[in-house]
Specification:
The complex is a heterodimer of chains A (617) and B (102).
Chain A: H1 7-21, H2 28-56, E1 61-67, E2 77-82, H3 84-107, H4 114-133, H5 137-155, H6 162-193, H7 198-208, H8 214-230, H9 239-242, H10 248-257, H11 262-269, H12 271-275, H13 278-301, H14 305-325, H15 329-356, H16 374-387, H17 394-408, H18 413-439, H19 456-471, H20 480-483, H21 496-517, H22 524-527, H23 531-541, H24 546-564, H25 569-591, H26 596-616
Helix pairs in contact in A: 1-2, 1-4, 2-3, 2-4, 3-4, 3-10, 3-15, 3-19, 4-5, 5-6, 6-8, 8-11, 8-13, 10-15, 13-14, 13-18, 13-23, 14-15, 14-17, 14-18, 15-16, 15-17, 15-19, 16-18, 16-19, 17-18, 18-21
Chain B: H1 6-26, H2 30-55, H3 59-89
The chains are: A mainly alpha (617), B mainly alpha (102).
């Protein structure tokens, strides 16, 4: 039964081919079931394989479908590797992916490019499954680039608006920076260790490299570069908020639930490498902490419903990086899973809101939607509670584990914990700011909202995700074999005070949000009265000026160089060959006068030269 | 009878050849070019005759007969061409014929 694992990426790939080869001639009644059904089949197989795997008691399982290429000793194959980590990932991808596909059949039903949408989505899921199931870094990289491509295609899905095309290019180029770093990392690993099979590579690294050695640091740094690009962490986080240009199910699937967690997966998969480079691991935690704080501040100032959620995604992935950095591997993956549940829920619910308001995304033009959109209201309530780690929702368990993991780290651990708690406070504020503004108060909408859109295929996934977001914390993630070498991780022993703080802080954030945006006890206007507050707001609104900075430091010089170097300097060497032969040609053409006497003269002259040469020699 | 020294014969042939060549190169009238060519041919013929007389060989004379025939044929063809040229271009100036200019 475990051999069926090769079917996992195959179903979505077949779905993609079916939709692409028919070129959008399929009607929506056929394209929808193909698009969503292929993922459903994948999920069924994934569930089957997962239960079989758990019952078998194996630590891991490898299935080689076929050899991809064979060059000397280098022999990467389409080989699928199943262990606790990839099992969790494949279940999230196919499970949450299926719900989102189902939702999208309703959400996209009015779109003329319905089939194109599902073909991209299927290709994405297929690539993502290859990424998490690949047993070698080459297959992983194939999936890695595949999801990057699909992300580009889907952000620019509504390509008639140039702004969407710009956002798509931005996402592609920014992640490319990380991908390049990762590719160099792969070259380094192969050159040094002679294999790209992940498990062999990790063993070889442990045998050959000492802890903290230069090669280990370099390799893990390069891989980290890839991870921060894909997972939108500092300093490559700028693409994710703009990626919201795509349709909302895309945002839910790619930019919240699955693709952006690829970086987290990569680090978790190669965690022995990071353990051998403690300085880099510390850097991972630091990146996570700074990112989660920065994007928390930014999320508080945004007015676009999807951008708020996007920044909260960046912030939550920051938590995962924090968890990875402090060595709380399972906690990070656990948070990845719960985050997939509640962030997919939030995005899909926001999709319903946006659709009911005729594609209005500004939260200040919503307001009072509680009665009109009950399903979205409850979805948002539960999603927001889980996001702010309200006790006994899914986010509470996972975020707690990360923060407790941080506390266990000696030395700087306390500061990481403190930063995470501060971040949780801001999470409470921005999440419920959104919630209160959108669903309470008076309606600010230009058009009155329609009755809640969507039938069972939109509301069904929302309800299932609500259940998962509430109860996802009780799922036991079987990761001990992967991260602790079979030892069961002990319970955290911390004082009640720490627990109390971690429960109280998000609630405090919610309370602050309530006082500002619901009861209006405090006024935002008064807070915003002074000039420096306005400037600070503008600064945070622009995402801490990263876009401006990158424009000034990277984009403008590049454009300047491109303008200056319009005639490529390197090309001029090639152009030289052309101009020299043209000049020579012009010279010889001059001798072709067409005058008979001139020819006769050259013949006579040549004769004279030959004869005198003969005479001299 | 005093024989003419062989050098004189060769020098005369050389001078004639050079005069002919100069005529070919400088004359613009095609008829004169043709005549200059004849002079060059006869200069080489003279050189053959002188050499044959000097060394007592018959080949030189045979060669002169061939040159004579050749010159006759050449004049026939050349004059024909010149007549064609005059008909087409209404001129015998050789500089006009430079359509092959590169």
């Amino acid at each position: 039964m475990l051999e069926l694992i090769w079917l996992l990426p195959t179903f979505p790939l077949l779905g993609f081919l079916a939709l692409v080869l028919t070129g959008g001639r399929l009607s929506k009644q056929i394209a929808g079931p193909i698009g969503a059904g292929s993922i459903g089949l994948s999920f069924a197989v994934a569930a089957l394989v997962a239960s079989e795997f758990l019952n078998s008691g194996l630590e891991h399982f490898t299935y080689e479908a076929w050899v991809w290429m064979s060059v000397g000793g280098f022999k990467p194959g389409f080989t699928f590797f199943l262990d606790g980590l990839s099992m969790v990932m494949m279940l999230i991808i196919t499970g949450v992916g299926f719900l989102i596909h189902l939702y999208a059949t309703g959400y996209m039903s009015d779109d003329p490019s319905f089939a194109r949408f599902f073909s991209y989505m299927n290709l994405f899921v297929s690539a993502m499954l290859m990424l998490v199931l690949g047993d070698n870094l080459v297959l992983l990289y194939l999936g890695w680039e595949g999801v990057g491509l699909c992300s580009y295609l889907l952000i620019g899905f509504w390509y008639t608006n140039p702004a969407n095309g710009y956002a798509a290019r931005k996402a592609f180029v920014v992640t490319r920076v990380g991908d390049t770093s990762m590719a160099i990392g792969l070259f380094l690993l192969f050159a040094q260790l002679g294999t790209l099979n992940i498990q062999d590579m990790l063993h070889a690294a442990e045998m050959q490299w000492s802890v903290g050695s230069g090669l280990a640091v370099a390799a893990s740094l390069l891989l980290l570069g890839g991870a921060v690009g894909k997972s939108a962490q500092l300093p490559l986080q700028t693409w994710l908020p703009d990626a919201m240009a795509g349709p909302t199910p895309i945002s839910a699937l790619i930019h919240a639930a699955t693709m952006v967690t690829a970086g987290v997966y990569l680090i978790a998969r190669t965690h022995p490498l990071f353990e051998m480079a403690p300085s880099v691991q510390l850097l991972v935690a630091l990146i996570g902490l700074i990112t989660l704080l920065l994007s928390g501040f930014t999320a508080m100032t945004q007015s676009d419903i999807k951008r708020i959620l996007a920044y909260s995604t960046v912030s939550q992935i920051g938590y995962m990086f924090l968890g990875l950095g402090v060595g709380a591997w399972s906690a990070a993956i656990f948070h990845l899973m719960t985050h997939a549940f509640f962030k997919a829920l939030l995005f899909l619910a926001s999709g319903t809101v946006i659709l009911s308001l005729h594609h209005e995304q500004n939260i200040f033009k919503m307001g009072g939607l509680r009665k009109a959109l009950p399903v979205s209201f409850f979805s948002f309530l539960i999603g927001s509670l889980a996001l702010t780690a309200f006790p006994y929702t899914s986010g509470y368990f996972s975020k707690d584990e990360i923060l407790l993991g941080a506390l266990e780290l000696e030395g700087v651990g306390f500061w990481f914990w403190l930063g995470g708690v501060v971040g949780a406070f801001f999470t409470g504020i921005y999440t419920f700011r959104l919630f209160f503004i959108v669903f309470f108060g008076d309606s600010q909408a230009e058009h009155p909202p329609e009755k809640e859109v969507g039938g069972w295929h939109m509301n069904g996934p929302l309800i299932l995700l609500m259940i998962l977001a509430l109860s996802g914390g009780f799922i036991h993630v079987p990761l001990d074999a992967v991260f602790n070498h079979g030892e069961v991780h002990g319970e955290h022993h911390v004082s009640g005070l720490v627990h109390g703080i971690m429960i109280a802080v998000p609630l405090l954030g919610i309370a602050v949000s309530y006082l500002f945006f619901r009861s209006k006890t405090f006024s935002v206007e008064k807070l915003m009265a002074s000039a420096w507050a306005k400037n600070l707001h503008a600064f945070w609104f622009g995402g801490w000026g990263f876009d401006t900075l990158y424009n000034a430091v990277l984009v403008s010089p590049f454009l300047f160089l491109a303008r200056v170097n319009r005639k490529d300097i390197i090309d001029s060497f090639n152009a030289l060959i052309v101009s020299v032969s043209q000049a020579a040609n012009a010279l010889i053409v001059k001798s072709q006068t067409g005058s008979l006497r001139w020819y006769a003269l050259t013949v006579a002259g040549g004769l004279v030269v030959m004869v005198s040469l003969g005479a001299i020699l | 009878m005093e024989t003419i020294p062989v050098e004189h014969g060769f020098i005369l042939a050389g001078i004639l050849f050079c005069l002919g060549l100069i005529g070919v190169l400088t004359r613009r009238n095609v008829v004169f070019v043709l005549m200059s060519l004849e002079i060059m041919l006869n200069a080489s013929g003279l050189a053959f005759i002188v050499a044959a007389a000097r060394w007592g060989h018959a080949e030189g004379q045979v060669m002169f007969l061939m040159i004579l025939t050749l010159a006759a044929a050449e004049v026939a063809v050349g004059l024909g061409l010149i007549i064609q040229m005059f008909r087409r271009f209404q001129t015998v100036d050789i500089n006009v014929l430079s359509d092959m200019k590169g």
